[in-house]
Specification:
alpha+beta; Beta-lactamase Inhibitory Protein, Chain:B, domain 1; elongated; 6-stranded antiparallel β-sheet; 17 strands; 3 domains; 5-stranded antiparallel β-sheet
Length: 302
């Protein structure tokens, strides 16, 4: 076998190897704060326990009692706590069998509930202690988000919506929506933003206003919404292709950039040269695949 043939086989094998697309991306050298991130930083800061005033109210977003709250009376509590209001009352230092502990005392419908911590009140108030109670969403947090967003026109980045019953529906992304209001969400994403799109469809998405929250990587407000029209960033995309993008769909003839804007970065890419040119395969972990011939989409499965 000649050296030229060996070389061609070797290069073909190399070009067929899968590689993560993330490895090809360049990291920005300078961190730029977006208007949406600035909005969160300027308006929302999760309160430490020492900043709580007696009487601060929380709404329970689960049917079950938060597992870290113990009831302080013998009678049976309500079976369904969803929507119940818990009011913070005080700190109580107690002596337990294992030493000193402090109870954060809440009240709901005449019953007391205690969140116990094996620390003194002084220790808890000296730092920025926050009790782990994701089932309880502060009502002042909901009210502030509602006051800042109600009636505003935003541009939604996600097509994963929920209807009024909480059932997942396929919406559209990069389209304008008008915020109807902000309500309590769930124990993972504490706020629910209810909106109506330009076609009259009412839906919602859950989010958080805290950028450092564990759940914020893809679902914080700045990841889900834009204050400016996203369509204006892509003037070279024609209207028919853009309509497909908003539906998270692809059409034959799309460029790689247009497909990426629609369905996102692939998890793996494979490039194979053939007689017609270079074929590039994009594969996604959900089973979606796209095939490009010389940079244009020729085959796909969603």
């Amino acid at each position: 076998m000649s050296r030229i043939v060996v070389f061609l086989i070797f290069t073909t094998v190399l070009s067929s190897v899968f590689y993560p697309v993330d490895a090809k991306r360049k990291k920005s050298e300078q961190i730029v704060i977006t208007p949406e991130e600035a909005f969160l930083d300027d308006n929302f800061d999760e309160k430490c326990l020492k900043e709580w005033n007696s009487g601060r109210e929380f709404v329970c977003v689960t049917r079950e009692l938060p597992v870290l709250l113990g009831i302080n009376m013998l009678s049976s509590p309500s079976d369904d706590f969803s929507g119940k209001i818990f009011t913070y009352r005080m700190l109580e230092e107690e002596k337990g069998w294992s030493g000193s502990e402090t109870a954060i005392v809440f009240e709901c419908e005449g019953r007391k509930y205690k969140y116990k911590v094996k620390k003194s009140a002084g220790e808890m108030l000296a730092g920025c202690f926050r009790p782990l109670l994701p089932e309880l969403v502060p009502l002042d947090y909901v009210a502030k988000a509602d006051s800042l967003l109600r009636g505003r026109i935003l541009y939604i980045r996600s097509a994963n919506w929920s209807d009024s019953s909480g059932v997942d529906i396929k919406g559209r992304k990069y389209v304008p929506v008008t915020v109807n209001g902000v309500e309590p969400g769930d124990k993972v994403l504490p706020l629910k933003i209810v909106f109506t799109d330009s076609r009259g469809v009412m839906a919602s998405v859950c989010t958080t206003m805290y950028r450092d929250a564990i759940s914020s990587q893809y679902t914080s407000f700045d990841k889900l919404f834009s204050f400016t029209d996203i369509r204006e960033r892509y003037p070279d995309i024609n209207d028919d292709v853009w309509e497909a993008v908003t539906r998270v769909e692809v059409v034959a003839g799309m460029t790689k950039n247009e497909a990426m804007i629609s369905v996102g970065y692939p998890d793996n890419v494979r490039k194979i040269p053939d007689n017609a040119g270079l074929r590039e395969y994009w594969m996604y972990n959900n089973g979606t695949y796209l095939v490009f011939q010389d940079g244009l989409l020729v085959e796909y499965r969603l």
